[in-house]
Specification:
Radius of gyration: 22 Å
Largest sheet: 5 strands, antiparallel
Number of domains: 3
CATH superfamily of the largest domain: Hypothetical protein af1432
Helix content: 40-55%
Number of helices: 14
CATH topology of the largest domain: Hypothetical protein af1432
CATH architecture of the largest domain: Orthogonal Bundle
Oligomer: single chain
Length: 373
């Protein structure tokens, strides 16, 4: 058996996807067999950092099988597309001075605006189940989450393609001037200091200025960036605009909603039900806020819940009624993990949702690829 380092083939491995070959220690002893599912990127990196190995012959056979697989059968998983978009956005938001910045941002806008409706539930799942432990990725993750939420809501409202593109573009770039500060604040356990507060207050106009310098002339996009922290009646910042644009208001609401579901070093994420209640209460029944809540559901995909049966489950799809989503049971009534997630319909009294469950109380790992294929 010829062993080669895991590092040489690491780019092939994907979280939530069965291993195409076994992973071994330095003596060649099998630790994880072919087909084993490593649930997340963190555990894959642990294997890499521990200096694991693979059998060169097994890798060769795996690659040969892949080459023989008909191209038509290779369907890209939406989660891979999402992760690639997140990586691209991370680089883009830190390169606004690049001549290709604006064209590349428009490419991302187009990708978000063409997310297929069939993936709406998975999009919400990926937003709720995002790993916020990597604070350095907070800015791009938050931007993508807000943009995706805006896309879903604007489609429900039948906004024009032009409106949606300006909206999504503004959502992606609203914090352009404070990308690094966002990452720092996400890992900071203390409130912003005076200098940080000054930068926060200035960022809507500063971000719009960077966009104009990059060549953006879309007035609706620029206004939405400038006004995304303005509140109707004049209670926002930086200019206390009494009647901010509709695009800016939807971004503000999606921004707030996404932040409530995002853990930071100094703040845990809110429970889904509470986040919806707070958004409604804070905006006085605003029509856009109500549409956002209806679009996500009271129990959005990715939310952990307890069923009347005693099972612990994760919501996978919104149901016909707000309180009756489809879920996947992760444990039995005794709290013992199931071999695989089992679909349950909470419209049935015996499977009704009785409570939401805090993320820290859940020990069963589950990925989007396991639930959505």
């Amino acid at each position: 058996m010829q062993l080669i380092s895991l590092e040489q083939v690491f780019k092939i491995l994907k979280p939530g996807i069965p291993l195409p070959f076994g992973i071994r220690d330095a003596e060649g002893r099998l630790l994880l067999g072919k087909g084993h599912v490593v649930p997340d990127q963190e555990r894959l990196l642990e294997l890499l950092n521990r200096g694991m190995f693979v059998d060169a012959e097994e890798v060769k056979r795996s690659m040969a099988n892949r080459e023989a697989e008909p191209v038509a059968h290779r369907v890209e998983k939406f989660s891979n597309r999402w992760d690639a978009l997140l990586r691209k956005l991370g680089l883009l938001l830190r390169s606004s001075g690049n001549p290709e910045f604006l064209p590349q941002v428009r490419e991302v806008v187009e990708q978000v605006c063409t997310f297929p409706e069939a993936q709406d539930d998975q999009i919400l799942f990926l937003i709720l189940r995002h790993d916020h432990g990597r604070h350095e990725l907070y800015a791009e993750a938050h931007a993508l989450h807000v943009a995706a939420l805006c896309h879903l809501v604007s489609r429900r409202l039948n906004w024009t393609d032009a409106q949606r593109q300006s909206l999504v573009g503004a959502a992606l770039t609203m914090n352009l001037s404070m990308v690094n500060l966002q990452a720092k604040l996400a890992g900071q356990r203390t409130p912003p200091n005076p200098t940080q507060r000054k930068d926060i207050q200035a960022h809507p106009l500063a971000s719009a200025t960077l966009l104009q310098a990059a060549g953006l002339t879309d007035a609706a996009w620029l206004a939405a960036v400038e006004q995304h922290h303005e509140v109707p009646g004049g209670g926002g910042y930086p200019h206390q605009v009494a009647a901010p644009s509709e695009l800016a208001q939807l971004i503000r609401l999606a921004d707030s909603f996404a932040a409530k579901h995002s853990a930071r070093a100094g703040r845990a994420k809110q429970a889904a039900e509470q986040a919806a209640r707070d958004l409604y209460a804070q905006n006085g029944g605003d029509a856009l806020a109500m549409t956002l809540i209806r679009e996500c559901g009271i129990y959005p995909p990715g939310c952990f819940v307890k069923l009347a049966s005693g099972e612990l489950a994760v919501v996978t799809r919104r149901g016909a009624q707000p309180k009756e989503p489809l879920v996947a049971a992760l444990t039995n009534a005794n709290g013992e993990p199931l071999a695989r997630p089992v679909q349950r319909d909470t419209a049935q009294a015996a499977r009704a949702i009785v409570a939401t469950v805090a993320e820290k109380a859940v020990t069963v790992q589950v990925s989007a690829d396991q639930l959505y294929g």
